[in-house]
Structure formats: structure tokens, C-alpha cells
Amino acid sequence: MWGDTAYLELWLEDEGHKISEVDALETDGKKVTWREMLDEIIKRKQFELTGFSYSSMDEFLTSLYGQYQDFDVGREYLAKEFKSKAKVAWYVDNFGHKHTTPYVLKTNGFQSMVLGRMSYRQLQKMKANSGLQFMWDSGINNTEIYTHFLSNQYEWPSWKFDFDRHDSCNIGELLGILARFANKQVGIYPHKKQILIIMGDDFRFVKAEKAFNCLDTLVRAAGSGKYRNWGQGKKQLELRYSTISEYMQSLQEDKSVQLGSVKGDFGPYNDRRPENYWTGIYSTRPALKYSIRYTERLVKQAESVFALAKLFARKSVSNSGENLDGIALNSTVITLLEGKLTDSQKQLSLGYHHDSITGVCTAQTYKNYMSRLQEANKKAREIISTCMRAVLNSKEAAKGGGDIEYVGPSIGTVYGAESVEDEVETQIEQHGSAYIDSTRCNNDKFYSRIDSAIELQDIFAVQKDTGTGTEGE
């Protein structure tokens, strides 16, 4: 199973063309590349691409615009390369989960999801009530999604399955551990017939061949009938490999179990007693957070201006490099700009990763994220500059075909109406008044936002005059 599309793309670029060192396809010695092997095991449903987001974004710090863009970028790559259409979202390492996630996922075509982190107290309560499978209600347009919560996050059932650090492969001992773990899991999930067991952890499978050989032997031994508790009998346990989609589909097809409904956030994250909250992620590395927001606005403007420029452009029958209908934006330039825009979107999506925007990354990784954002900024500005010049010089604009306003060299500071509204409200709350330069937004909605802000200012004024509320509330 693979979750982060970005790292799949990087791996295929670096290693995909190389000869595979593993004969997973049983080709009788025929050499195949890693990419050929990957295509085949996906076809055989032995390997699954989950989620189709470009990176595993943080749900609380990533804007809704950013979340949808992350899906768009990942979906486009997976559809192009693998014709993949994921139905299960894999959110096992995010530092808490936001109530809007079910809505975002359902509107992107997902049918179910797997979560991995919630408050320690909440987790213990749901375990006690066998409630770790539920319908998660977003509270938006009656949107809910079938949800499985990992009781053990995404770790092995025991450290003895960590074959990178444990050399033994004692089949009898490992099957005993699995039997005890499975029986314990039955008590905390409403579905009693099938239990999901995760094999893996962070930075593991360095000794992958040894690990997979032991697991293969384990599965064969469980079906041999030679070990206690394992076999085909009525009260026996069966062990088999499965993709997450196969598992989730089997649960949803079982109509005998009615799941409860859960609303609200699973956050802020608190991983152990006493109250060990991870709230520092909301303020750590503020420069990185600012750079992500700034780049997001710039890329958003690049998308809008590029779309406008393409409206003015005319279809070309050749790549001769000549202007199309008087506009300096031919098919060659459009292809070039599309590549720059896609790359900017990808670099921005990496900034949304839950180890990036939260600021928990190392200093070296932090520098890498910042350099990627700077590259995205550079390419977004090039797109805006090229497209604005093309639009302003077009015959259609000269004819009065569009109401075009050039916003000057500081186009990187053009904001959407939503961000202006946020800034106005913040200024009013802090200072009692607000000032936003009108040249910073060429959206008609800007003025309606200002009207709303004026009304908000009046409300604050009334509160101050009447003394509504008490200090410290």
C-alpha cells in the first residue's frame, strides 16, 4: 500500500527505470523494471494506491482550498500514470482529524477512510464502547463517511514482528501473539468477524526480504492446521493478506452491524497521559507557515490569470510560434506554463504535508521545504507576468472584449476576497478599525466584504459602549 503520491513520483523518477532486485512476479528469471513490476502487482490487486492526495496533509492547518488542490494534483498524476481511482482514504499519521474531512473526502469520491490519531481519553472511551468503527458526520449537508480507527495506530501488534531489529522468526510464538492480539481487538470493534492487523512502522523494512519471507511463512503455517487456534474450523482463526480496500468493502457489505454516528473534531491531539497535547504544531516555525500561505495565494492567482489568458488565446493548428489572434500566448507557451503551474502546485502540496506545515520537521528538511516554496513562488510569478502581458496586449482587450486592470509589479500581493475579510476582521478586533488598500484586490466581492466588516465594526463598537461581556471571558 502506498499513501503519499509525491514520494511515489520521486521514487519512480529515480528508480522506476532500473531493473527490479525482487522477483515478485515469478518471471522465471526474466528481468523487469521496478515500474513494470509495480504496474503488474497493481493489476493483480496485490498493491494499492490509497488516498490519491499528493501529500498526506495536515487537516487543521491546511485550508479547504489547499486540501482540494492537494487531491486535484495527486488525482491527476495517478490517473495519468496508473488509471487509479482510490475509494479509501488513509489518514493514519495526521496529528488529529478535523470535522470537515468527511465532507472533503465524500465530495472527492471516497467511500470510507482509516484514521490513526485521537485524544488519549477519547480513544480509551471509544475502545470501552466497541466504537472504533463509526459513521463520521461532518455536520455539512448531512455528509458522513464510513470510518475505521486504528486501535494501535499503525504499529506492529508486537515488537517481535519488527524484523529490522529482531532476528528471530519463531512461527509458533508469532502465531500465538497474533491470536491474542486478534481476540483483544474483537472486543473494541463492532465488527467481530474480521480484524485488521497492520504490519509496519516508521522507517522500517530495511531488511525487507527477511521480513516478507517470515510473513509468507506465517500465513502458510496459519492455514496448515498444525497450530493451535489456527485453521478452517468454526472457532479457528484464519490469516490472509488483504488490501485496505478489500477489508473496508467487506465491512460495508456486512449489513448485520449498525454503526454509531460521531460528530466533531478528533483534536487537538493528545497522545498519552497526563495531558500531553500537541498544540505547539499550530505555532511552531511561523516563517514556514507564512511562506505556505503566501505561496498558496500566489499559486491561486496564477491559476486564475492563466485561465483568463487561455480564454483570450485561440486554438492553433501549428506550433509555429506566431501570435494567436494578436495574443502572445501560443500553444508552445501554454504547454510550458502548464508545466510550471503543475510544478508550483506540487511544491505547494508538499508544504501541506503534516510534517511540514506543522513545523515538526528537522532543520535540514525545513530548509528543503522553504526552497521548494521559493521555487513555486518563482514559477507562479512567471506565469502571472507572462499571462498578464499577453492579456493586456491582446486584440480582444483592445476591442473592449474584457474589463482588464493591470495591478502593477506587486502582483504577488493580490489576495482573494476571503483572505481580505479575515485580515479586516483581525484588524478590527485588535485595533477597533481596519485599513485595506483597495488595489490589493480586484474582485467585486471585495466591496461586499468591506460592507460586512463595517457592520462587524459597529457590533464591536456597541459591545464596547454597553460593556457587554466580562474581562477574562
TrEMBL record:
It comes from the Eukaryota. Residues 276-373 form the Glycoside hydrolase family 38 central domain. Keywords: Glycosidase, Hydrolase. Pfam families: Alpha-mann_mid, Glyco_hydro_38N. GO terms for biological process: mannose metabolic process. GO terms for molecular function: alpha-mannosidase activity. The keyword Hydrolase applies. This is Alpha-mannosidase F. It comes from Zancudomyces culisetae (Gut fungus).
